[in-house]
Amino acid sequence: MSSPTPALDPVELAAYFSLIEATSLLRHTVELQLKEAGDLSYVQFQLLARLGDAPGGSHNMTELADGVVYSRSGLTYQAGLLEKAGLVTRAPSADDERGTTVTITDAGRSRLAAVFPGHIEVLHRMLFDALSRDDILTLEGLLTPVVQHMRAMPPRSASRRRTKGSTAGGLAGGGHRD
Amino acid sequence: MSSPTPALDPVELAAYFSLIEATSLLRHTVELQLKEAGDLSYVQFQLLARLGDAPGGSHNMTELADGVVYSRSGLTYQAGLLEKAGLVTRAPSADDERGTTVTITDAGRSRLAAVFPGHIEVLHRMLFDALSRDDILTLEGLLTPVVQHMRAMPPRSASRRRTKGSTAGGLAGGGHRD
DNA sequence: TATTGTTATACTCTATAACTATA
DNA sequence: TATAGTTATAGAGTATAACAATA
């Protein structure tokens, strides 16, 4: 429908590679720091940080998952770990009995506090020290719309699963159950 | 010793979040595409692509690992998978008998060819369609120095392990072996 | 019937430590 | 002794499918 996508020109290629490598290096370093300073994986840190920012320190599972985790069971698993560590609590939601409300505990906030300084230090050392003030502003100005664009994209997968109605007309003609 | 790293200002925070989320979404989508089009994980794709670009289609293990994988055994594992799938061959290096030369096969190149169009399409759809020509140039201009900066950083871990000599003066007073 | 969340399970990936072999 | 790579193994994480319960 749109572009023929023949290849990437050198600038696109370099931008793509840099983006991937920078994030990979940054994330790896951050993961080591989080693990060492607070025994948290990156995903766990993201979940905790999200709860820390939320009003009341709470989210339901679906809100919490958004953007961090790509499957429900994955979140249940992580939330279970955080709960077992005493960093969050889980309780049935007040308004929707199906829902689970996850709330950060004092211990969770302490853990965040224990981890933040080192986290920020890594970000400065690895990322921001290499950029001028204007560069950072420019980068933010470029990437924020990119994220919005990506969020608006159809998921391409990851959600068309419980689509009951596809009994006929699917790709697989034969006999997969479910 | 150096910066007090009090906190991130809003722009830094936004830049950081955008960077992480954009890359996460992009990578997730790319991984689905690579899996579907060529049954490759992202790491496997990177290794294969790197070999495809190399003169003679070869690298030794250490060169191949650089920047893609963070442990030796991880690369051995992945290389083993690629070899089992017939996409690369492994042979003792000519010049250094300790080394292993990994070479992409014709099947490996075919696999790359099978995967590239969709890969590029995803990149355009998710990333480049949201940016102007100048934006892409700017992004590349910002991130390339960032990567160089990151590469130049001391690894902070991940290599200070076989440092025999630290019998005295280390952090752990006691008796960890090795 | 659709949605929220959990569980069971299988699989992929990563990393540490111990080991072999060559430089 | 240091370096290149492999192996064994253990652990963390992810995803699919099946399930229970509420809307």
The pLDDT mean of chain A sits at 86
In angstroms, what is the radius of gyration of chain A?
Answer: 20 Å
What characteristic shape of chain A results from the CA principal axes?
Answer: globular
Strand count of chain A: 3
Oligomer status: homodimer
Major sheet strand order of chain A: 1-3-2
Number of helices of chain A: 6
Order of helices and strands of chain A: HHEHHEEHH
Low-pLDDT runs of 5+ residues of chain A are: 157-178
The major β-sheet of chain A equals: 3 strands, antiparallel
**Backbone structural class of chain A:** mainly alpha
Largest interface (CB within 8 Å) is between: A-B, 57 and 57 residues
β-strand amount of chain A? 5-15%
Helical residue percent band of chain A: 55-70%
Distance between the termini of chain A: 33 Å
Describe this structure in words.
Two copies of one chain form a homodimer. Chain A contains six helices and three strands. In chain A, strands 1-3-2 form a three-stranded antiparallel sheet. In chain A, a hairpin with a 7-residue loop joins β2 and β3. The relative contact order of chain A is 0.10. The C terminus of chain A is likely disordered. Chain A binds a DNA duplex (23 and 23 nucleotides) through α4.
Provide key terms for this protein.
globular; 178 residues; mainly alpha; DNA-binding
Secondary-structure map:
The structure is a homodimer of 178-residue chains.
Chain A: H1 10-38, H2 42-53, E1 58-60, H3 61-65, H4 72-84, E2 88-92, E3 100-104, H5 106-126, H6 133-152
Antiparallel strand pairs in A: 1-3, 2-3
Chain A binds a DNA duplex (23 and 23 nucleotides) through residues 41, 43, 60-62, 69-78, 80-81, 93, 96-100, 161-162, 164, 177-178.
